[in-house]
Amino acid sequence: MRSKIFAFLICCYSLAGWSQNHSFVYEFLSLPRSSLAAGLGGNQIATPEKDLSLSLHNPALLSGDYHHQLSLSYMNYVADIHVGSAIYARKINDLSAWMTAVRYLDYGHIPGMDIHGNSTGAIAARDMAISGGYSFLMTDYLRGGINANFIYSVLDEYSSLGMSVDLGLYYFNEEKLFWAGLTAKNLGSQFKAYQDSYERLPWDIQLGISKKLEHAPFRFSLTTERLWEWGLTELKWHEQILRHCILGVEFLPSEAFHLHVGYNVRRRVDLSIEQRNLLNGLSAGCSFSVKQVRIGLAYASYHLSGNSLSFSISTPLNHFSL
Fold this sequence. Notes:
Layout: H1 2-13, H2 35-39, E1 69-76, E2 82-91, E3 96-106, E4 110-113, E5 119-123, E6 125-137, E7 142-155, E8 158-173, E9 178-192, E10 204-212, E11 218-224, H3 237-242, E12 245-254, E13 257-264, H4 265-271, E14 282-290, E15 293-303, E16 306-316
Antiparallel strand pairs: 1-2, 1-16, 2-3, 3-6, 4-5, 6-7, 7-8, 8-9, 9-10, 10-11, 11-12, 12-13, 13-14, 14-15, 15-16
């Protein structure tokens, strides 16, 4: 078992030798697909929360608990840019499960113009990923998972194809109310570029932990992203560390109703301007159950031009006799 974990870590951290070029393609793969993750700062890879869409954040969060379950999500990203996903999962046996998912991003109405300023009609611009995932129980406290993603993107007359995989580990200790996750995301490449130049996928290495208080309805989380990116000489060491951190707090008064707040340090720094910085980096959300239907809502700001609202719904299909 230790050899499997060691091999996973070597696979992840060997990527740190890649170029520190920040120009990536298929950035839509990094957007939150869960309203819970959106409300907790944009990412969550270590949580006991029963949210199937979180398996797109950490494939090891998939389990047999989601047997015959469907999850749908939608986010109004910026202006008329729309983001959505659909996920379906099934249990294989007591140790493993699989899921399939579709993710998309539609850039909305983009008017086309020729060199003389004449209208040529609307430009098609959208991204899509079709995914298949598998998770397996490695020990009584550790689960592993993998997602494979086929990616398609079209920008007017140009199109691109790519493939990637996401690897994940999830540690859970219910007795100590502690959970941890480790992921390596978007490992792959384009095999058909828009033109002649091939670009890197937005690969990332992430580590997260969650801890619930024993005698109070609060759960705290810390998620670290872009662990390969260091050496920003213009920043002090503590500023570099904080730029990798997402902090989250959940209020859990009951199983049927949750509130959560997140703070993304990098987003606050990137969006801060003198005229507007009060809510930069902050996000919030809630989730509640109506019978066996789970509904989630979240608010966040990803761009200075506007705020984003996320909505998700999940339910076991056998509840509807399907």
